[in-house]
Fold:
Amino acid sequence: MPYWGDSYRLSVAPMMDWTDRHCRFFHRLIAPKARLYTEMITTGAILHGDLHRLLDFSEEEHPVAIQLGGSEPEALAASARRAAQWGYDEINLNCGCPSERVQRGAFGACLMREPDLVADCIKAMQDAVSIPVTVKHRIGVDDQEDYGFVRDFVGKLFQVGCRVFFVHARSAILKGLSPKENREIPPLRMSVVRRLKQDFPDALIVANGGIQTLNQAQALMTPSSAGPAVDGVMIGRAAYHDPWILHALQAALCLPGSPLPPNREAILAPLQSY
Ligand SMILES: Cc1cc2nc3c(=O)[nH]c(=O)nc-3n(C[C@H](O)[C@H](O)[C@H](O)COP(=O)(O)O)c2cc1C
Structure:
């Protein structure tokens, strides 16, 4: 396992229209050790857009990762380089978004069908930056739901040096379901995430999807008859429905020694001055 493994025990998921810099600052006050992720930013936006508006963040947000959307190795490499220069701590590639707009751009979840291309994208980004390049993905796409599909996807990326995988434990249904339905209707199969950890013990496997309580998170981070413990949890919607859950998650899941605010009132003053 990479030496920085412990820093992946708790993450807040990339969420469009939610995890902008202000939301991340708020989450940071609650959970000083959580890894924070930007909303997905496309390579086109980074290469042609207003970089300050897209990339600026507060120093307090570290460790903070940028999530990129794209499928062209050169554009991803150039975007990753800019993000690393901007001070981001990690580049995460989106291979899990099912939206039609994203499919037209041929990235997101449909990339799971093209592991060779994704491997080229990962390699190109790794060559461009020295920070970790990670992937967020699903466990299947449409009728490609057998375990071998996701195992081979992860295996291909592991071969080229990718070591951190955020696994949203649902298949993506690319035709007929909206992105919102795609976060609710395909069943959660956390056993698949544990099985990936079993087959890739030297990778960091982070579970995502439907984690709403500390008990759920702790169960996933404990070995069971379903397989080994996962290395961390990534929290999506629960982080905006009930942000304070991050406080309990950090207290229970992260290594001791990381300071936590003593109570909710303690974050009001820094939030006001922000
Ligand atoms: C409003 C919203 C926006 C999202 N935007 C992104 C995104 O930009 N990139 C991404 O990889 N996933 C995105 N997701 C998916 C989440 O990162 C996460 O995988 C999903 O919500 C499942 O986790 P949860 O059950 O803890 O919410 C989004 C989810 C929501 C609810």
